[in-house]
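The data layer described in this paper is built around a simple, fixed record for each protein. Such a record has a labelled line for the sequence and another for the backbone structure tokens. For reference, a complete record is included directly beneath this paragraph.
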Amino acid sequence: MRKNYSKKYVLLCAFLMMSVMAFAQTGSIKGKVSDETNQPLPGATVTIDGTTIGSTTDANGNYAINNVKHGSYTLSIKFIGYVTLKQAVTVNGATALNFSLVPESKSLNEVVVIGYGTQRKKDLSGAITNVTSKDFQKGVITTPEQLIAGKVAGVSVISNSGAPGSGSKIRIRGGASLSASNDPLIVIDGVPLDNARNADGTSKISGVADPLSLINPNDIESFSILKDASATAIYGNRASNGVILITTKKGKGKPTLDFSSQFSVSKLGKEVSVLTADQLRAYVKANGTTAQQALLGNANTDWQKEIYQTALTTDNNISVSGATKVLPYRVSAGYLNQEGILKTGSLRRFTGAINLSPSFFTDHLKLNLNIKGANVKQRFANQDAIGAAVSFNPTLPVYSGSKRFGGYYEWLDPSSVNGLKSLAPLNPLGMLEQRDDKSNVYRSIGNLTIDYKFHFLPELHANVNLGYDVSNGRGNVFVSDSAAVGYKRFKDANGVFHGGTKTQYKQLQSNKIFEGYLSYAKDFKSIKSHVDAVAGYSYQDFLTTNYNFPDITADGTIVSKPVYPFDKPENRLISVYGRLNYVFDDKYILTGTVRRDGSSRFAPDRRYGTFPSAAFAWKMINEDFLKGSKVLSDLKLRLGWGKTGQQDIGENYSYISYYNLSNNTAQYQLGDTFYNLYRPGGYYPNRTWEETTSANVGFDFGFIDNRITGTVDYYHRKTKNLLNRISQPAGSNFSNEIVANIGDATSSGVEFNINADVIRTSDLTWSIGLNATYNQNKITKLTIAPDPSYAGSPTGGISGGTGQNIQINSVNYPRYAFYVYQQVYDANGKPLDGVFVDRNGDGVINEQDLYHYKNPDPKGYFGLTSNVNYKKWSAGFTARASVGNYAYNNVFSNTGTQRSIINPIGVINNGSTNVLESGLSGSSDKNVLSDYYIQNASFIRMDNVNVGYNFGKLFKNSGALRVSANVQNVFVITKYKGVDPEIGTGIDNNLYPRPRTYVLGFNLSL
């Protein structure tokens, strides 16, 4: 009996010891799951991969997993609409782990802004790309479009120059026009802007280089880029070049004060490669006469260093935002002070913005008030100094030692009226410092939107949009009467000479819009359907007042008076539109839109047009044969078709016969009296908008729980009624040429975009994004009837010769193709002076031997973005590449010959270093049209490299500080021999260089 008891006792002890040991070898994992704002996420799941062990968070976001055996595991933390987080963990006791989830920006539940409303990304049927603030370009960003450079497939953003406020050329799928605007329609918070440029490329708002420079990028929350016609047709006759919808920041959550500040230093990255003073002396001694050698000086002046400077910029922004029970609000202010690297140039911008979004009657009535204002004060540097610095003789000093011409050294000719050598370059530094060109521009953009949800039918909303965009631009230009520019330019009735300039300009612009529309959205669960519809009316009026002022010399002498004190062009748009979107079984989507537009720019019988579109999308991922896939997480097919128009033709009254009154320098003498004359102007009553029909096929895809997402699109566009200049028979019209709708063109392309979260843990994340675009275009018609003898419409004016054009628009060729002579080379690859290929074999080199060679548009362009976050550190870069684009090096063609250096007018100029390798004399007038100067301008550019550190909370429950540093325009890899290969027009004629910029900044949130 005692033995049995002893055995039982031993077994009991052994069991207890094993239980204790087993208990000692298990642990627990506990913690909290919250979002990026530290708000708890109830209902989130925390599971151990490969097991059924896990937990769900409670109302406070807390979770607990008990009785976990000691060892190493991988946790999966999931919450609907947020990025799934993977975290390695080692359990050897009680383990505490808190997790912060971030919203899945590429989530199918993401809401995207579209025309006249929003839509879930998963229900989109058109080619639409959304870019939010977290994906924007970093650094000193002074205009909105720079935020998305390199970020979107099919969208090209090329900086116009390195000048302050110069803005960029934006092209969506390459544009669709020859003579009209190729700029996309830009809509900011529901207000369509008139951002198209004048025919000469200048800003339509006087006093600024770019209208978008009056908008503070720091106030922008997101961009929606509408690319295909099924997405853009809702905007009708302004949508052929695509649409960009800008949404500004709104208030939400608890009251927050945000302050950001940046300080940057900009420097010239690369100079034009010109001869040094010693090289020039050697060249002239080897090739010039004794008299020409005597024109050389003893100085060693680097004129490019004389005109450029290290530029400083500060950019400060502050905002207060939050929300009370019924009133979300945000108020912001900004101040930008930017120097240009070209001396004397600067820009100061003051901005302010208010957004109020109150709601009433338990959210049945919602108001949204947006007011944005800006004041830009700018001094424009004389950019002619850039070309002068390249060609001015480096053996000559900056200053002459006399008081004449302000003390600046100039080429003199005692026999001329003004004492200056005719056609000789002027002193570059004098051109800058003796010109004071200042502007003062105000602009305000705002609107009030009213959204009323009917009580009896809550799915139906009535919407009203009242908006405006007004600007007031004025400026003064003063050039001293001692300056070589304009010296003794006017001789009065008493024979006294006057010089210099003292002129002014003023312009007022008003853009007003009224829109009213009904919107309806409802889920019909019984038939597995979702319907949303929009129908509305739009009226927009554009009025510009240009004041005309007399031409006045520096001492106030009037050279000429304007014929009219002002002119007041105006145009209006009236439209009705509708859209229906139908989703069945969360698989099949049908979208149809139509817009009927009327534009006052056209004759009454040609004023109205209809622009329809249709699209179909198939969510293949929701089909049974793909459901449950462990790899594929999204797959959608999109098909779209539509028609859009282009009414930005640059003129408001071209269909009306009119008379021009001559100015005071073109009068007719009758007896002893001089009279101004009225002269009929050319007109074309049949002009109408250009019309583009496009088709799009696309796929959206996602892999591994959408850790890899992307899109592929193919598009084909055909534009008819292209505006083109055509010659008129003598006596048939009042102009030798008119602009008429007689052209057709096609374009097609492929776009690819992919984003991947390569690493996604609580401590380390790494995401990369790549986009690629292939585009080609061809002109198919330029005359009413086929005409093989018609070479095309010349364009692309260049410096060199008189009235020279280097490009042409011709049938069966891309737009703006270079039209040049084919250079002949020797056995060593050196161009033979004045020798070109006789392409038609008639023994004469003339215009019949010009041929189409390359064009400025790239065949492909790419964007690459990478971002790494490790704990509180972050780093990233953005790079862009362009392949297949060519540029005409007008700097080399103007300065790279013996004739341009040893000038027959009796001066010695500097030259570009390519004169040493080419040996061209420049004696042939055809030299400037040689294909020798068409150079491969493909490039890889590192736009931005950045690093930052987030200090986290400054106080117990609030406050955050982040510091950052970045470099912009880090490097460029290219074969192009000029300063910069990225040239919007394809003609490099002394481009204002883009600087390399070093930036330090911080963001403080309280």
